[in-house]
Amino acid sequence: MNDKADVWQGTLALMILKTLETLGPLHGYGIARRIEQISGGLLSLNYGTVYPALLKLEQEGSIESEWGVSDNNRKAKYYKLTGAGRKQLEREARDWRQAQAILAKFLSAESST
Amino acid sequence: MSFAKWLRAWFQRFAGFLGKRKRDAELVAELESHLQLHIEDNLRAGMTPEAARREALIKLGGLEQTKETYRDRGGLPFIEIALQDLRFALRTLRKSPGFTAVAVLTLALGIGANTAIFTVIYGVLFRPLPFPEADRIVELVEMTQGESGEMDLTATQLRRLREFGQVFEHLAGWTDVGFNLAVGNAAEHVRGTPVSADYFQVLGVHPVAGREFLPDEDQGEGQRVAILSHSLWKRRFAGEPSAIGQKVLLNGEAYTVIGVMPADFDPRGYSDINPGLPVDLWVPLALVAKTAGSGENIEVLARLKPGAKQPQLDAQMNVATEQFRKEFSGDVGPKTRMSFLPYQSMLAADLRPFLLLILGAIGFVLLIACANVANLLLARGESRAREIAARMALGATRARLSRQLLTESMVIALAGGTLGLAFASAGLGSLLAIAPFDLPRLNDIHLDGWVFGFTFLISVLTGSLSGLAPAILATNFDLSQVLKAAEGRATTSAGRARLRQGLVIGEFALSLVLLTGAGLMIATFAKLMRIDPGFNPRGVLTMQFWLNGSNYHSTPEISAFYRAVEQRIASLPGVEAAGIVAAGLPLERGGHSAVRIAGPNQSEEQPCDYREASPNYFRAMGIALRGGRGILETDTADSSQVVVVNAAFGQQYFAGRSPVGGRILMGNASREIVGVVADAKSYLDRPALPTAFIPAAQASFAGSQMWEDWFPRSIVARTSVDPLSLSHAVRQAVETVNPVVPTGAIRTIDEMMSRSLALRGFLMRLLGIFGGLALVLASVGLYGVISFVVGRRTREIGVRMSLGARPTDVLRLILADGLRLAITGVVVGVVAALLLTRLLESMVYGVSPRDPLVIVLVSLLMMAVSLLACYVPACRAIKVDPIVALRYE
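Predict the joint structure of the above. Result:
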């Protein structure tokens, strides 16, 4: 069970970072909503799971948090990308694309023989 | 993840761990705000408030689960769990103070004793010497077939050795002598060390005032300059800087003070010539290098060049050995190899086996203490079975429960360790005070980080050793069985019973080894007590004194002084006889020389101990005359030269025939043997060496001076009263004759006898105490196991008795159970003892380390004690009322 959660958290972290890059500072609920929307409903996400992931990213210094006020005047904790987070996002996105490309090639080669 | 990032995350987690409350509150607030945001969105999408809230909660997922994951991630869960276990352990232990006290105290005694002994051993053997880069300081040794010992050189050999010095930064010789230091009208005997000019560079310590020796001062005849110890400087010059440049009289010669060493400087050179006496001054080695005797006793210390490698050193010393063998064939035998070993390892090398033996023995005691605590924990686990079962039923995992139980034994062990450390620090002083040997490096023995580390380590080890098996076994049972079992009925697993039996067997085996050691030492002691020392040790007072540098410049003058002192002391009330001996009392190391026996083998030198005695010495010491005559007043410088020898001399050099009338050659003098006396021993456990007693009045003045450098002269007074009551009068007698003759230690021969037995006596007592303690603990363990067996078999016993078994049958049944354990323990112990007691080889005397009688007696003792331990519970078994027993569930 733990192994699965780790893999999931790895991709979840990347999604969180990308969301923050695109949308700027955002609270946990907004991040969770956004991830669900982008995946077009393919991903069923327990919103609660983003919080441990956010905490991990914050502990590692990729994001930082601050209490703020939402558009409709609700107190919420806002997360934003740090310089280190930005670099991490770039690196992980590149790695991910590379892995994807390799796998795509590999799979197409497999089917053509 | 990069290391920096990882570190940062852990740091944050640690911070989170400390601010746990705040973090939890913040998460609650964040989740609350999350829900509100979601609900508002849902409302805007047109849901009813009820449905909006419901949907938001479902989407968020398990709230508690989220919090749990978040918490685990935010802090340090394993520490939190450990703290929780700790709190729980403290709570449960507080609830059973009796058990806790016994367990903690048992371990505290074991750990405390180990800590104290470790402190001594670490200080004496392993603590780095307090010199800069002390690991580069090495000492010259001679290796003969794997055995290494300090090697002494002559001045010529030291010069030759310097030619092989490419790996050495500095190489210095040193030797050990005594000096009479006269200042004004008072004299004092101090320990002095003639050293090469670069001695202080080898050690890397330099004078705090003044300077070191110059190479010139250690050339040729040497120059009369001296460096003082800090304490001598304080004592004699009141710590005045003006002391530098002043003159002191050493053995009557004027020396210029050129330096003062730092207060804490202690070269650690151990000497059995002046045991216990600190070095008070240093003079150039060249001054004594020419003297025949001193010149042959130069020890060598060197500082290796930085980065010097052992193979390089070995290669050079091999070349040196070859060269020395050619040049000084008498000193370097064909199987001897010269080498250098770390100075540190050479100090106390002779005490090393003894100290490690004690550490081993005391380690056994700790093992037994562990076994006992394990036994207690097992018994406790049995009585707690229902509690543990209930917790398992509520979902606690086996590992989690074991961990909690182990935490409990760790708490006990660490509490024991802390208390043990307190015991050790309180007892260390008394331990050193009763230690029967002169420990070198006494200043290096103290509690410090290493000792704390050791204590912590053995505490943790003790905790796991005693707690691990009980913790695992406590949770190892069939849950439904235990829960179904009736209240109050003992439940046990086969594993636990086996473990308890195994522990008892182990305790018996360890006890047997310790008791066998004690038995061997008792046998040794009994043998030593029955040894005839060759003199009568009762009621004899001795006092050291020195004459070098006094106003006596010839043998006749010294003889006159002897006579005056002897007469004065002999006339004291309570004194029966008074004599004087030079170059060594019995029971101590003394002068060793060589003689040639007139006759066919006249050219051959024979080893022989050397003493100078006054006419009354033999009577005062109670050394019996075996033939011929003793030394007489009429044996003077002008009469014919005579010598009295001991019985061993006759046996060895005259093949048992009476040597009286024979002649020996000592140096140039030929002496007639006029008498034979009993073998007064230098070491109780070794045969006496051939010894020659020269009449003090016929001794060579120069030779006598030379012997005095090492061995004090001694006054011997045989008294009919308590010898020590005459101490003052004896010292005053010498002062009256000559106030500037320094006097030293006053001791009774009885005291010296017990001191020479002290090491073995100490070991005997220690092993006896340890063994006794072990036996008590083992018996308690056996008692516990048998009581338990009786409890469990009550019903069976009832059945047997109602079917007609007699009480004796039941008794036999129970005793057989106990004896089986005891016998197994004894057998294992005997095997272990046979393997281990050879470590006592160097300590036993007159018995074999595998003496069958000792082993049989100890085994019988253990059987008797184990019968006793079983008898009490067995008696309880036969008093069982069959009716009650049959109802017993």
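Chain B touches chain A at residues 1, 5, 8-9, 12-13, 16, 26-27, 29-31, 33-34, 36-38, 40-41, 59-63, 65-66, 69-70, 73-74 (CB under 8 Å).
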